[in-house]
Structures are given as structure tokens and as C-alpha cells.
Write a structure and sequence with these properties.
Length: about 170
């Protein structure tokens, strides 16, 4: 969204010979790196229309995907959700009042990144986590696979800690 709005603002400013911010700080993006956070955000999205007062229930809101998650749909890919939680439990969870705060502090992210970097440093025998990218491909891929499967680090966490591209990390099995 940010990229689209930035391009639109540039076009608008050129067309109307103006300078400055057209749209400011409307959208924010954070990676969803845990199943718990995924479920929490899904509940937040489904309850949003009710909290905003534009619907009496999320299930009856015309634009809600909640029906798709409960009854399976051709429009919405619900396969990931079904690997985490069964339908009855999801309905129960979704009906709980959402009291979450949806801010991820920079401090929490730093602590997380610090842990990941230190763990990779341990695995590399004390070498900086960015040295992982300098290892021979076979050895590098083996360590990345270990980080994903045994350490349960996400692709994004490994990418931030090592500087290795997301595509390379994704392809490691």
C-alpha cells in the first residue's frame, strides 16, 4: 500500500504542480512471525467491523471473511489456519473479546534480533552472523535448514540476522 500511495502522491503532486505530503502515516506493516500472532490478528480483523459499529456481528458483515474461515471457501485460502486450529476452537477463539494491543515495540524486535544473531554466532563458532553468507553454499544451506527446522527461526529473522536474501533462505530445505 505504501508503494502504491507514494506513487499516487508523486503523480498527484506533478499533475497539480504541488509539493509536499499528500497522504501521511496511514499504513503500517509488521511481519506475522508466529501462529499466536496470526490468530490474534485474524480475530482483530474479524472483530473490527463490530468494534467500529458498522456491523452487529462479524459473521453477518458483508465484507468479512469470517464465513470463509468457518465454512471453507473457494475465495479465501484457509489451509494455513486449519493446520493451527480446528474450526470449533477457531469459532470459540474468535468470539473471545479481543483485548490485544497491536504495537510491536522496537525494543522487543531488538531483543529478538539479538537472540537470533547470538544463536547463529554460537553455531558459527563465534563468527559474526553475517559470515554465514560467506560459507560454501552446501554448508550455508545446511545451517539455514537447521535454523529453520530445529531453531524454528522464521525466514525474516534469518534474513535480518545474516543479510542473506529471503529467496535463498526459503529454498533451503
Amino acid at each position: 500500500m505504501q508503494r502504491i500511495l507514494t506513487r499516487y502522491a508523486g503523480w498527484f503532486n506533478r499533475k497539480y504542480d504541488r509539493i509536499g505530503i499528500l497522504i501521511a502515516n496511514r499504513f503500517k506493516s509488521e511481519p506475522v512471525e508466529t501462529e499466536e500472532y496470526f490468530l490474534t490478528l485474524l480475530r482483530y480483523i474479524h472483530q473490527n467491523s463490530v468494534k467500529a459499529g458498522i456491523a452487529k456481528s462479524a459473521i453477518n458483515y458483508k465484507w468479512s471473511s469470517l464465513k470463509d474461515y468457518i465454512k471453507k471457501s473457494e475465495f479465501t485460502d484457509t489451509s494455513f489456519l486449519t493446520t493451527i486450529i480446528d474450526t470449533d476452537s477457531f469459532i470459540e477463539y474468535n468470539n473471545e473479546e479481543d483485548m490485544e494491543v497491536y504495537e510491536i515495540s522496537a525494543e522487543d524486535k531488538k531483543k529478538d534480533d539479538f537472540y537470533v544473531k547470538n544463536r547463529i554466532k554460537e553455531i558459527l563458532g563465534g563468527a559474526d552472523s553475517f559470515k554465514l553468507g560467506e560459507l560454501p553454499k552446501k554448508e550455508r544451506d545446511k545451517i539455514i535448514s537447521f535454523l529453520k527446522s530445529n531453531e524454528k527461526f522464521t525466514i525474516r529473522q534469518i534474513e535480518r540476522a545474516t543479510g542473506i536474501s529471503r529467496g535463498v533462505i526459503f529454498r533451503c530445505k
